[in-house]
Amino acid sequence: MKIPSVYNSPEGKRLVLSTYEKILQQWPLPYEIKKISTSYGETAAIVSGADDLPALILLHGSSSNSAMWIHDVEALSQHYRVFAVDIIGEPGFSAETRPDHKGNHYGIWLEEVMMQFNLMRATVMGNSLGGWMALQLAKYRPNRVIALVLLAPSGLAPARLSFVLKAIPLTLMGGWGANKLTQLVYGQEEIPEEARRFSTLIMNHFTPQIGSLPVITDEELRKLTMPILYVGGEKDALLHTQESAERLQQLLPHAITRIVPNTGHVLIHEQEEYLNFLKNRSANKKTGV
Fold first, then answer.
1. CA angle 123, 286, 112 (to 5 degrees)
2. Architecture of 10-287 per CATH?
């Protein structure tokens, strides 16, 4: 059975992926695009950092790809072997497969990715949809996750209905709707112009999945004993940040939560926050804490 394309046209797919390739030429350190097989289709990862460093898996947001980590990877690679994974069904180099969000499909997929890269355990950092993916792996195979960094993650509370009701018609309005949807997500945040252009290009040629992702249950959350950092924007137009943070604090008292004032869904100034968290995890591992 042929998988429906996630792009509006073959030309649109070619344009998005060729632009992605050009952006990766600016990756700030040596990298390799590695492609591995999974039962959900071929999966690509941008791999950087020394072989002998602990593994860090990066999972980007919806309607995006691993180019989003281009300004973070250099600092991260000083402490980790970084695997920036292109999520299946999104506009990257991985398969266009879109398994049902219900069930354990994405946890199974990510465990297969780890197995193919010979990773027994890893720290996992995810943004938005990628945060939801990180939670899927953590609840499915918690023993494989050393620590979690969740940046404006879906899955801790339902998406804002107001965003869903605005986003659905905008996806049907061509280029104008794509621009409006991009503005809705970015809010007032000052985004590098190249990133904004690439995001608009993707929205013009890619069919996103709109709607609220399944929320992880209380029972599933309580099983997550690994160190967790949660960061969310106070004025997130997509997600209920305060509700998500309070739920984590109630069910997982060991989790560190931070709500960034006057900030929307896009978090581009929080590198120091998660670097300090990751450095502490690395230091604790070396000292046996």
1. 25
2. 3-Layer(aba) Sandwich (3.40)
